[in-house]
Amino acid sequence: MGDDGDGDFQTLVAFEIEVYGQDQNATGHTSKGNKKRILTQYKFSLSQRQIQPKELTEIAAALQQSEVLANAIEDLPTERILRTNRPLSPRAQASPALREMKYSHYDALGVKRDLEDYAARFGISGAEKLGNCVRRLIGYLADIGASAGPHQIARGEFDAQFAGFDNPRSLAIHDACGERTRELNEQKSINLDLDGLAIAARLPVSQAMERLQNDAIVLITGNGGCGKTTSLWQALYDVANAGAPVQRLSCLLLSARSIESLIDEWRGAASPGTTGSGDATALKLLMDANRSVTNPVLILGLDGIDEIRESNPLYGQASQLIRFFWELHRKHMFAASVPPARLLVTCRRRSDFTRFIGPIAATSDISLTPIDLGEFSPKEFEGLLLNTVNIDSGVAERLIDRTHFTLGTSRERSPFSANNAAVIDPKWISLLRRPIIWRFFAKLKPAEQIQLVDGDEAPEFKIAEKYFEWFLTRTRKRHGLDEDRVNDSLRAAARASDASGGPYAFTFWKDNVMPPGLSIEQARSLYHESISAGIIDDIPPAGRVQTMISVEFPWRWQHEFFWKYLRSSV
To answer: Which among 309, 285, 307 has a CA at the least distance from the CA of 298?
Structure first.
């Protein structure tokens, strides 16, 4: 469709041939809502002889006269086009007549490439499929042309008839990146509850992104509550906002799925993931839609694979996805080419990853060293304290000083004050450098923050309360567990145990959490969710690693202040 600087037609109002003395007349609305007309004269010759100035002047005059006739019916901004396979002679190229119209040289091979690129945007490739698209569209236009009355064709309707499914969407990065960024923002707000929280720029995440320059798969490990999900989201969001033009798509998978179903969903295909094309073909479709983009075209994040048990229907999908990227990793490790896609995976231990690819990894000469994520470094912690809006400035200074006093490090931004440092209980320096605890400390009112650093226990219970409310909501959303029963179950386990005791056997766990009304499977789900959220920690026996998530190892409480809160009568 034509373009006069105001954008292509988004709605085609009328399309006529052999009218006003020209081969084609089209009227429609641009993307800005402006109505315009395009008059086109075609000149084709097998000999492709040059167009001379005299002939060019005659064509320009004919187009001008046609515009006068058309405007007598409806006065519209008009674009005049000469479309031909004939070249202009040198003298014709300098003719004033050329300024009166747009010269469009018809290149059959170029048109074919444009058509293939147009089809590739919707994940359509191959001569047979492209032929089907063209025939379907011609049939649709023929039906419209044969019917009486005026007709309007919207761009979306045109695309749908060509692609063969409703609401086709472009896989081209410059078209699709906006939707991917909106998804990440929705995940931040709805799924991750990160609105209003400052997110630390963490060194391990930078290291992971550096590895992704060459590796198809990068593993981030760390205990529950260390900020793996938040860091993964931040890394993918940074990819999506790395500057214009955006060079790759990024997506956080909150549950495992195939690349095929993901790409099908992005392009608007009916019944995503059921075409049987496979992950490799689906990735090729994305690459075909972005031929001018340097690999990788896609970076995915798969969060929390340690939580996927073998009995979970998602286990097979997670295994398929991880094995696909593992094979990419092996294939490109020593190759000159770079992988077309990357996968960031988070889990608690390396063994959580290898259980998905065990036989492959055992026979492979390719190692995968995880990047470990722990508590905030002093620099990261200092940055959070100074850049989080809700943090009291005096509290920030005192916590920064206490951190450096405890660790024996020096401040970078302002003089150190030993008097500030001496007051605060050092246990809170350790606790607040844990991302899961920081999350809820940052939500305290400034007056409560001051009370905490002054040694008052009331804010400790406030942090524990916010932590527990978040956990109850999470278990309900993720496992459908009743919040009242989870509340009673965890409090029962706390009252039957010691904060510094353990490790306790899983039988101790289920004997205490089941009586309030949980089944054995719900008790297992609560156990794994409590580990994931950093409430408890499991302790594998010496010399053993967890190879099956269905094995529940002994456990103990991670935070004494939280254990005390659970034992209270609140």
So the answer is: 285
